[in-house]
Specification:
Layout (H helix, E strand, L loop, with lengths): L1 H19 L8 E3 L7 H10 L3 E5 L5 H17 L5 E5 L5 E2 L14 E5 L9 E3 L4 H6 L5 E4 L4 E9 L2 E9 L8 E3 L12 H6 L5
Parallel strand pairs: 1-2, 2-3, 5-6
Antiparallel strand pairs: 4-10, 5-9, 7-8, 7-10, 8-9
Helix pairs in contact: 2-3
Length: 203
């Protein structure tokens, strides 16, 4: 794993050197994952020229993010190379309910979406949203799963059931997948329950 990371680091450093030649070089950010937890790796990335460490709430708790930020601050100060730290919170999200049978749809397939916590059969996707949000979904609108890895388009809507056509399919559909509605008027609060609990001063 360290060898693979070292190869990536060389590539990143080469890219940074190219960017630094530009008249107004952009800042370079790195998303923190399992390969970037140890101090020697953090130091290598800082010396390589990274400007921003991005910590995602989907991967770490608040306490873990704070502890990591302190570690980065200590290492960057020792090397006299200041870096920025970004806390990335996903905010409120909508997810599929419990899918009875995971499946990978084909382009052009039809899937049934129901307003429920649990699906009732094959090719049925449960979508546990409020009745007011459900009413805002319209025929012709798109529904994205897993950041668009699967894209559906609604072609009929009747009561608490939608029928949609698969337009893009690059991932298996399974329970609790994140759902987005790029064409609808559904509004989500920028802060989810976790953010409200960890940062009450923002609510």
């Amino acid at each position: 794993q360290n060898q693979a990371f070292a190869i990536k680091l060389v590539r990143i450093k080469f890219l940074i050197q190219i960017l630094q030649i530009m008249p107004n070089p952009p800042k370079v950010a790195v998303s923190v994952g399992s390969a970037l937890l140890e101090e020697d790796m953090i130091m290598a990335v800082i010396l390589g020229g990274v400007d921003i460490f991005r910590l995602q709430s989907a991967k770490f708790t608040l306490d873990e993010m704070v502890a990591y930020a302190k570690k980065v601050r200590t290492i960057s100060a020792a090397r006299n190379k200041p870096v920025e730290i970004m806390f990335d919170y996903s905010g409120a999200q909508t997810h599929l309910g419990e899918v009875t049978h995971s499946f990978t749809p084909k382009l052009g397939d039809n899937v049934r979406i129901v307003r429920a916590e649990k699906g009732g059969g094959k090719d049925e996707l449960p979508l546990p949203v409020s009745s007011s949000d459900w009413d805002l979904l319209k025929e012709g609108e798109r529904i994205y799963l897993a950041d668009g890895a699967v894209q559906l388009r609604i072609y009929t809507k009747k009561g608490s059931e939608l029928n949609a056509t698969v337009e893009i399919s690059a991932e298996e559909i399974k329970s609790k997948m994140e759902v987005n509605f790029p064409d609808s008027d559904i509004h989500f609060e920028p802060l989810g329950p976790r953010e409200r609990a960890e940062f009450p001063e923002l609510t």
